[in-house]
Amino acid sequence: MLPSGAFVLVVIATVILHCNGAPTNCTITLQQYTTIQIGWTQQQVTQFLGSPGIIVLEVGTAGSPYQMISVQYSALQSSSATASFLFMGGSLYTKSQAGIDAGVYTITSQQYTMIQAGWTRDQVTNLCGSPGSAISESGTGNTASVSVMYTVSGTPYASVSFTFTGGQITSMFEVGLSPPVNDKITLLQYQTVQIGWSQQQVTQFLGGPGIIVLEVGTAGSPYQMISVQYSGQQSSAATASFLFMGGSLYTKSQAGMDTGVYTITSQQYKTIQPGWTRDQVTSLCGSPGSAISESGTGNTASVSVMYTVSGTPYAFASFTFTGGQITSMFEVGLK
Q: Where is the signal peptide (predicted)?
C-alpha cells in the first residue's frame, strides 16, 4: 500500500510532466487559440504554445491513426476559462474554448427569428453586428464546421447557438429567449392545430411565427426539421411546441397549457391494460386526461395522455395510444 502523501506526489509529478515543469506554462491567449488551425500536428501546437498542456483523455495505441488525445490549456487571465484540443492520429481534429473569448456578442429575439437555415456567417454577422464567439471548430474545406454563440442583453442565462457547416447554417437553437407578445397561444388554439398543417398555416392561424428553438437541414428539403415554441396566454411557464418535417407539422406537444384536473387512482391504473381504447380509459377514470403530445395521422396517429394522482403532486400515469389503442403505459409514484 502506498504511504500517505504518495498519491499527492504522483499527481504533482503528472502535472509537471505535462506542463514542462510549471503549471502556469499551460496557458493560452485568445490570439494563440485563434491562430491554431485544424490539421496542425500535436507537436506543432506544443511548440507554438510552449508547453504540451494537460492531457485529459488518451485513447488508443500510440502512433495509430485512430488514437485520440485531448489536451487542455487555461486562459492566461483566468484559470476558469479553458481551451481544448482533440487530436486524432496526431493531427488536430477539433478545437473548442469556453471563456477564452471574453468579447460581448449579443442578439435579440427578433434577429434570431429572422435568421434561417442556409444563411452564411457573414449574413448573421451583418444582421447582429458581430461575428459571435466561435466556441468550437472542426474539419476543413467543404466539411469545415464552426459553432458560434451569442448572448442576449439583459438576460444573463439566455443564449443562441448556430452551427455553420461548409459556410452555411445547418443547425440553430436558443435557450431563454423571451418570446414576443404575439407568440402566445391558448389551449383552444393548440387543440385546433392539426398534424399535417404547413408551417405557414400554423403561423397564420396563431398570428405569429413563434420562437424557433431548433432548425436542422437545408431549407426546402423534405428532411428539414424546424421546432417552434409558443408560450401560454395566461402563463409564460406554459409552452406549446410544434415540430415541422419538410414544412408540415409532424408532432405537437404541450406542457402546462391544459390546466384541467385529470386524476387516476392506483386501482384504476392496475385495471387498465394494453390494447384498451381511449374511450375505455376515459370511462373508467371519468376524464380524458391531458394530451401532452400528438403525432401521425390515421392508423399511425399517436397521442400521449397524462393523469395525475390526488394528494400526491409528484405522482402521475401516462398512456400512449397508437391507432386508437394503448401501446405503452407507465406510472411514477403510484402506490
A: 1-21
